[in-house]
Amino acid sequence: MEEQNELFLDQRNSSAHLTHELGNAIIQEFPFAFNERESNRYLKSLIDKTPWQQDSLRIAGKEVLIPRLQCWMGDQDSNYSYSGIRLQPKPWSEDVLNIKTRIESLAEHKFNSVLLNYYRNGQDSVSWHADDEKELGDKPVIASISFGAVRKFQFRAKFGNGVQKFNMELRNGSFLLMGDTLQNHWLHQLPKVSGLKKPRINLTFRRIY
Ligand SMILES: O=C(O)CCC(=O)C(=O)O
Ligand SMILES: [Mn+2]
Q1: How many CB atoms neighbour CB 97 within 10 A?
Q2: Whole-angstrom Cα distance, residue 32 to residue 176?
Q3: Three-state DSSP class for 52?
Q4: pLDDT mean over 166-178
Q5: What is the Cα–Cα distance from 85 to 130, expressed in whole angstroms?
Q6: Does residue 167 contact residue 152 with C-beta atoms inside 8 Å?
Q7: Whose CA is nearest to atom 10 of ligand 1?
Q8: Could you report the per-residue pLDDT of 60-118, keeping only the tens digit for each?
């Protein structure tokens, strides 16, 4: 496992990136994919204009609200379920299409849907999972963009004794390209943070087959 340092990157260059090797999987991190001004504008505009909903999961016979708001957008023929929740795609918004254009050129990859997550404060989170639903194919490439509060993002090996871990900080305007073998070998989570009042938006672009 290898770590590089973003201090050596040119902050004005949206395509400047680091490569993290996690065993047999690769993550490319573009810390400055969106500059601070546009990131702050996207944060506010996405919070205000996205048709957010809070879904619930059935856990041990009880309906439990998930700790974040979500919105699924995509091409109108994409149909997807996430942790047992069936998501009907909303039509693309102008902001999301603009973000999609930027990251498709950085990633050199096309996506047809996106899951938006709104973490209202440090008490919102997502627990250990992999984005490995069968609709995403055998080797899903996932493009993850973050706006707002810096949050810790953690990886844990799926197999073996699970002791292999990797942590990163997802900053305002960063873009993480999770390579095609990552979801097969690693789980990820965004843990709660006590005392954090600031919001964060994350978009994970996916390709549904
Ligand atoms: O908010 C994040 O950075 C991750 C979200 C995530 O893992 C997901 O929606 O599948
Ligand atoms: Mn995920």
Answers
A1: 12
A2: 11
A3: coil
A4: 96
A5: 15
A6: yes
A7: 131
A8: 899 999 999 999 999 987 766 666 666 679 999 999 999 999 999 999 999 999 999 99
Atom of ligand 1 nearest to the CA of 151: 3
- What domains lie within the chain, and their CATH numbers? 17-206 (2.60.120.590)
Closest ligand 1 atom number to CA of residue 188: 7
Q: Report the distance separating Cα 141 and Cα 150, nearest Å.
A: 23
Quote the CA–CA distance of 109 and 92 in Å, as a whole number. 18
For ligand 1, residues with CB inside 6 Å are 115, 117, 126, 131, 144, 153, 170, 188, 190, 202, 204
Contact criterion met (CB below 8 Å) for 68 and 139: no
Question: What digits encode the pLDDT tens for the residues 116-161?
Answer: 999 999 999 999 999 998 889 999 999 999 999 999 999 999 987 7
Minimum-distance ligand 1 atom for the alpha carbon of 115: 9
